Amino acid sequence: MVIRKTLFAMFFAAAAALAAVGCSGGAGGGSSAEGGELTLGTIGWTENVAVSNLTKVLLEEDLGYDRVELQTLDLGPLFQGVATGDLDAFQDVWLPNNRNYLDQVEDDVEVLDPWYKGETKYGIAALDYMNIDSLTELERAGTNEIVGIEPGASFHPRIRNVVFKEYNLDDFRLVESSTAAMLAAVEEAASNEEPILFLAWSPHWMNEVYDIVYLKDPKDAQGKFNDSSRITTVVNGELSEEDPVAYAFLKAVSLNEEQLNSLELEIKRAGEDEPVKGVRNWLEDNRDVVQPWIEAAREARQSSSS
């Protein structure tokens, strides 16, 4: 009797362990049942902070993921990380701007359709009180520095190697910093109506707060950066099979300019270190925006478990 009970207990424990293994997941492993983990790469740009934290909140709180980790890296390591599987996805790919990075890994990743549904702008900018509207007028801008963003930004080499040359800006220099440092410099300059040249783009809440002038480029020195870009997501080539739930969610994400700007502003109001709080505040009035994404993920979960 004791032996029989012991054997039954061992069998039950083994069956439970197998069931637990079958339902659990690692990175990119939230396929059929709730649970699992996902790792998203981020560059730290404002729209990336917004969409990646929105993804994190919805996957964890609505779709039952154990953890969605955000790893901040430079552009090169982000693309390489997605290709190797160290990262499951990166949601702030600007094309054609980032084409050089994508070309290096295209055999190991999948590029999803653009999630941003508006027109983008990108380029060297000034503030309207400076009374300049063209790169031909930089010599009278009142400053010879252009405040850039993170090292590795695709536009930086173009500024140094082409823009400066085409407009004879031998005494100008590009100052690499970070998005946060650039925005702080713009805020300080705007508050005192001091001259500043900086790298600006839309979508971004800065366009709602400051009177920004994107400087004309009659020589087309900024090249492809003068054109509207597509903002999309790149995922590891095996994500669709390893985690169809996350894959379906990422494919369904869709935001227009008003929605993205309002999300960014809520995160800004919540504080630099509280993006999740800002996301939750935004969701209070925007559940209808995200519900189709959640439903797409739930349908993928149901299909993969049947």
UniProtKB/TrEMBL annotation:
It comes from the Bacteria. Residues 1-19 form the signal peptide. One of its GO terms (cellular component) is ATP-binding cassette (ABC) transporter complex. Residues 37-284 form the ABC-type glycine betaine transport system substrate-binding domain. One of its GO terms (biological process) is choline transport. It is found in: Cell membrane. The keyword Transport applies. GO terms for molecular function: amine transmembrane transporter activity; carnitine transmembrane transporter activity. Pfam families: OpuAC. Its main location: membrane. Keywords: Cell membrane, Membrane, Signal, Transport. InterPro entries: ABC_Gly_betaine_transp_sub-bd. This is ABC transporter substrate-binding protein.
